Amino acid sequence: MFKHPTDRRLGLSIPRRSFAAKEDINRIISYSQNDKTFFAQKHFNYSLTNLQSSTTSMTSPAPQQPKTSSRPQRYAQIIRLLSSHAPEYIALHSRVWPSVLSRISASNIHDYSIFYDRQTSLLFASFKYTGTDFEGDMRRMSEDEEVRKWWRITDGMQESLNKETGARSTLEGGEAGWWRRCEEVFYTE
Q: Which end of the chain is flanked by fewer CB atoms within 10 Å, N or C?
């Protein structure tokens, strides 16, 4: 496997023979200048088909592991950061309140990262959930007053990609939530 420097943004290892598919991967994460929407869902099926056809002869897919409660569940989410608030948001996250960090940990969330793409103003968050009652843990997190204060500050710096489902804030996320969840399409340890 050859790891191209530009593939670090996704953590991808692209086989040497599949550079034609690299264009499709770039299309997945590209941003439309016309309608300001994230292209992942729109182009996902086309890009995945092209990627699979260009790499099928190199490797066979790894067998999928059954989901069990003993294995951490991985989550990924995206939201738009208002570019006028980017410096403030980044500074705020360089010194997260200890009470918020404590609640995140108590809610069985680990290995939590937020990435920022300055070109598209998208934030990408990923974390592992190690508990057995995700809904209950998220409810308890949303009931924590310090977390609610944190969300009131950070929500004002963000624009949800789920507005069409009624999202108005983290606490009033509507049907789909304030952050848009992303589908996991590949994983390897």
A: C
